[in-house]
Amino acid sequence: MTETSPVEPQVSAQRPERGEAPRAVMPSQLTQRLVIMVSALALIALAHAHRPTIGESPEARVARRFNAQVSAGEAINVTLESRDGTRKTLADFRGQVVLLNFWASWCPPCLKEMPDLEALSKGMRGRPFSLIALSGDDSWEPVDRVFGGAEVSMKVFRDPSLKDKQHLRWGTEKLPETYVIDKEGRLRLRFINVQPWQDDELVSYLEWLADE
């Protein structure tokens, strides 16, 4: 006799008969579906948040990503005192994109972002760009302690005014605060607090502005 393999019984999904109540979804299945739906909605919301809108400016995209403020108008001129006592003004940097950083040695958040600012300045070499770190300290001694005599790429200046510090004229009350100024001396962006200055999007924006 020829051996035959046992035939497995075939189970087919049965639809409920007319008038029969649909089967209830098990709690575990319901939870799984809810997790999938919530995850899908979160991904859609994230994609929408980073999607540029039609006609959106480069400044608007950066501002939305880093919670910055789009600025306009001519930058207020400030006096910059070098370590040797010579003075310049912000107007002397026309023709370059300027990243003006207001900071002080007694400000821990300011010190936290200094390495990223220095790395940004080094990375922008060869472009019409200057990173100005304007200290609100009343003397050079605390500034010197911060840098320890090391040579840096960014341009470090001190605010020579002992009273009515110049950053107050810009509306800056808390440090650090940083402004992007274009080659014509116009304000573009205002950043409040510490920023990831090595972020690809921030670097790409500054490169684009310098090469414009």
Task: Characterise this structure.
It is a single chain. This protein is an alpha/beta fold and 212 residues long. It has one domain (58-211): Glutaredoxin. 32% of the residues lie in helices and 17% in strands. It is built from five helices and eight strands; from the N terminus they run ααββββαβαβββα. The chain has helices spanning 27-49, 58-66, 108-123, 141-147, 200-211, and strands at residues 69-70, 79-81, 87-89, 97-103, 129-135, 155-158, 177-181, 187-192. It has a six-stranded mixed β-sheet, with helices on one face. A two-stranded antiparallel sheet has the order 2-3. The chain is globular.
Strand content: 15-25%
Low-confidence stretches: 1-13, 43-54
Order of helices and strands: HHEEEEHEHEEEH
What does the radius of gyration come to?
Answer: 29 Å
Overall domain count: 1
**Mean pLDDT over all positions:** 83
- So, CATH architecture? 3-Layer(aba) Sandwich
State the CATH class. Answer: Alpha Beta
Tally of DSSP helical segments: 5
**CATH-assigned fold name:** Glutaredoxin
Q: Could you name the key traits of this structure?
A:
globular, Glutaredoxin, alpha/beta, 17% strand, 8 strands, two-stranded antiparallel sheet, 212 residues
